[in-house]
Amino acid sequence: MSDRSTMSRVLLIVCVCVLSLLACSALAWWQWDRFTSVGGSYQNLGYVLQWPLFGLFPAFMFWRMRTLRARARAEEGRTEATDATTDATREPPARTAVPAPRRAAARVPVRTARDPEDAALAEYNAYLAELNAREQEENRHGDDRA
């Protein structure tokens, strides 16, 4: 990328950061006015504290991206320098044996005599079915009466 396009990109990002900070500061001021008014609440005060943080966030992200990019360039430079000096003396990596995948044991459900809980569950389900049938019948008779 040319220096001119890089500079214009940086200038654009700085302008966006400044505009964001100004807009969010105006919104914080507006929330402060609402907080100090008769109907103001602590929620407005919370927004007073939040808006400047929202305004600073683009600048933080710009700084963070530059820092990470510089760190990656430095790491890449170190890696290339060490690769160039050690390529001739480096031994090929030792082969490691890859273990064969293990098969999971097949799970066979164990059938036991019916538990008392199964009988209670079946009884409860029958009771629910009976209640549902009664409700359906009442609804049918109610529709006939209307």
Structure description:
The structure is a single chain. By secondary structure, the protein is mainly alpha-helical. It contains three helices and no strands. The protein has helices at residues 3-36, 42-86, 116-145. The radius of gyration is 36 Å and the shape is flat. The mean pLDDT is 82.
Sequence-ordered SSE layout with sheet pairings:
Elements: H1 3-36, H2 42-86, H3 116-145
Helix pairs in contact: 1-2
Name some characteristics of this structure.
3 helices, 146 residues, mainly alpha
* Gross morphology: flat
H/E topology pattern:
HHH
State the secondary-structure class. mainly alpha
State the helical fraction. Answer: over 70%
Share of residues in strands: under 5%
Number of helices: 3
Number of strands: 0
How many angstroms separate the termini?
81 Å
Indicate the mean pLDDT.
82
How does the major sheet shape up? none
Low-pLDDT residue intervals, each spanning 5 or more residues: none
Alpha carbon gyration radius: 36 Å
Concise summary:
The protein is mostly helical and 146 residues long. 75% of the residues lie in helices and 0% in strands.
